[in-house]
Amino acid sequence: MEKQDAADESQRRVDPSATGVERALESRFGVVARGSDARTEVLAGLTTFLTMSYIVVVNPAILAGIPGEKPGIVLPGYGVAEVQAMIAVATVLAAATGTLVMALYANRPFAQAPGMGLNAFFAFTVVGALGVPWQTALAAVVVEGLLFVAMSAVGAREYVLGVFPKPVKFAVGTGIGLFLAIIGLQEMRVVVADQSTLVTLGAVAADPVAMLSVAGLFLTVALYARGVRGAIVLGLLTTTVAGAVAAFTGVVDPGVLAVDAVRTGSVDLAALPPVTYDITPLAGAFVAGLSTVDPATFALVVFMLFFVDFFNTAGALTGVAQVSGDLDENGDVPDADEALMADAVGTTVGGMLGTSTVTTYIESAAGVEEGGRTGLTALVVGLLFLASLVLVPLAAAVPLYASHIAVVVVGILMFRNVVDIEWDDITHAVPAAFTILVMPFTYSIAYGIAAGIVSYPLVKLAAGEGDETRAGHWALAGAFVVYFYLRAGGIGV
């Protein structure tokens, strides 16, 4: 009833000379009622899309596996470039789905896409560290999405928020940022393995990949610092072009900084990476994954996906709504369950198509700062994602070192979450620090979250504040202790 009253009020505030399209937009989105206009919403949508469009290239680079080198999605009979193209298509369709649901159902200016950090968790932790088949990992994404749908439908957000320790929630973003940063720096050859110290500085002054990567990283950071729209995309594309020019002019050997098709003085179009829009080998693979489920590991993966997705989305929604002045008197996002539902639908569809968990992007704040206030902003973003299908060939043409510049930059930006942690309270500092440190040092987001959850009630009890813990805190901690004891003991889970 309140929404109908708002729609009626919105129509009364429309300029009498407005066109039929303008009246329809006002009826659907309430643009004028929220202090905006169609032109501002469109520009806001364009701004948001430019700030997050890097995901079309970066998500395939992270999710696609390289046999013997990198964990991820591997399709027998298909090359890495073909798999990347399929994942790029799935990425675009999943992002468009979640964002359009956000626009038309939740009427919020928030954009969605497969989440950074969640894609790394999928490839490096689930498929890599835990040894779960990628098809089963996709099944976990679908199940997590359906669980998210159910929780959003019954409005269980407050209950879920209360189960997880506060310092762990605030620390997850920073821990994932560190994890992403080390993944990116390794691919850029800035950080390399060392037998004595585990990791060390790469040959930055001698390795062409490391040299160009560092230059591209600083260029991207500089563009971002100056507020250039699409800074991350411009940075990785400029680095890619620079590598191709170096290969074309003979500064480096073919295949070092650019795809093998770019050779000294020529470009062999026939040797360019093959691109396909046919995702049938990928879409629906989660069904086969359900047949190889190990209950204990599968439950852990679903739990971790849900945890990171839920709090990433909740944090992004709150952060963006704060920029738009759309929080209520309690600091909450009004009708947040509708926005969470859009996230859940995007995740479910994405898992079915063949990509990792979809989440709300904090980059949506860029569009909000441009004046976006309604779902019309998100509608523009969703349509631009669909239009970006023509960019799918870039997913295969951009070298890994260039795409991982975006990984490092996003990782750096995630460090800012650390300011929300109460570092002067030891019962918050310990679980937060464990969460942040264990993720990169064990190369596992799951282990970091588990370390924080287990340590929280223990340090609370030791500090004489056991009465501040809940039964859910102890239950989660106990479950993780049992799981990792069984796993470390090699008892078949």
UniProtKB/TrEMBL annotation:
Q: What UniProt keywords are attached to this protein's entry?
A: Cell membrane, Membrane, Transmembrane, Transmembrane helix, Transport
Q: Which GO molecular-function terms appear in the entry?
A: purine nucleobase transmembrane transporter activity
Enumerate the residue ranges of region (Disordered): 1-20
Which residue spans traverse the membrane? 42-63, 83-106, 113-131, 137-156, 168-186, 198-224, 231-252, 376-395, 401-419, 431-459, 471-488
Membrane topology label:
Multi-pass membrane protein
The cellular component terms of Gene Ontology attached to this UniProt record, alphabetical and capped at eight, are: plasma membrane
Task: Report if keyword Ribosomal protein is assigned.
Answer: no
Q: Does the keyword Transport apply?
A: yes
Which superkingdom heads the taxonomic lineage of this protein's source? Answer: Archaea
A Pfam family name for this chain? Xan_ur_permease
Composition-biased stretches, type Basic and acidic residues, lie in 1-15
Q: Which InterPro entries match?
A: Azg-like (IPR045018), Azg-like_bact_archaea (IPR026033), NCS2 (IPR006043)
Where in the cell does this protein reside?
Answer: Cell membrane
Entry similarity comment: Belongs to the nucleobase:cation symporter-2 (NCS2) (TC 2.A.40) family. Azg-like subfamily.
Spell out the protein name for this chain.
Answer: Uracil permease
List the source organism: Haloprofundus marisrubri
